Amino acid sequence: MMYFREPAQRIGWLFIVATAAGVLSVVTMASTLGEDDLLAAVERDQGSLIVGNMLVFVMLVAMVGTAVLPAPVLGRHSRTLSLGYVLARAFEVATIAIGLVAALLLVPLSWTVQTADRAELAASNVLAGTLETASDWTGYLGAQMVFSLSALVLNWAFYRYAMVPRWLSF
């Protein structure tokens, strides 16, 4: 079992990086997203939104690593579980990436606030609300459901093939 030690450490660090970057991104963007006048808040504090989304990108890169690195180890026991885990994590990354793009699109949209007339401002506010909703759905609800699926696959593999102590795989 010593041949798992080095990959396990890398995977563990990637999980820590992904979790830390995800939490920091939520904390960083909390002051901007969720405001009543979203476009004015984004225009006023574009930096926090950009930095928060850069942290989301770091999280996505770490998540790709947590999908790819366990694949050879899981593949020794079950190719199906290995492929299922990689696909679940890839779907999670794709879902969160859609939310990242939606949140980043708020920045150029906020540039029109000062020069827009009343009708353009109303349309921009509707679009901003839609982008925020898309970011919320993909970033929180969608990613949490898909993450739960990938965690279920990984924990089942751990339990089924006794890769970790039984009590730890639950």
Distance between the termini: 20 Å
Extended strand count: 0
Order of helices and strands: HHHHHHH
The proportion of residues in beta strands is under 5%
Let me know the average pLDDT: 88
Tally the helices: 7
Instruction: Note the overall shape.
Output: elongated
| Poorly predicted runs | none
Major sheet: none
- How many domains? The number is 1
In terms of structural class, how would the helical and strand content be classed? Answer: mainly alpha
Helix content: over 70%
- What is Rg? 19 Å
3D structure, described in words:
- This protein has one domain (2-169).
- 79% of the residues lie in helices and 0% in strands.
- It has seven helices and no strands.
- Helix 1 (5-29) packs antiparallel against helix 3.
- It is elongated.
In short:
This protein is mainly α. The protein is built from seven helices and no strands. It has one domain.
What's the arrangement of secondary structure elements?
Elements: H1 5-29, H2 38-44, H3 46-68, H4 70-75, H5 79-104, H6 106-110, H7 118-160
Helix pairs in contact: 1-3, 3-5, 5-7
Q: Main traits of this protein?
A:
single chain; 170 residues; mainly alpha; elongated
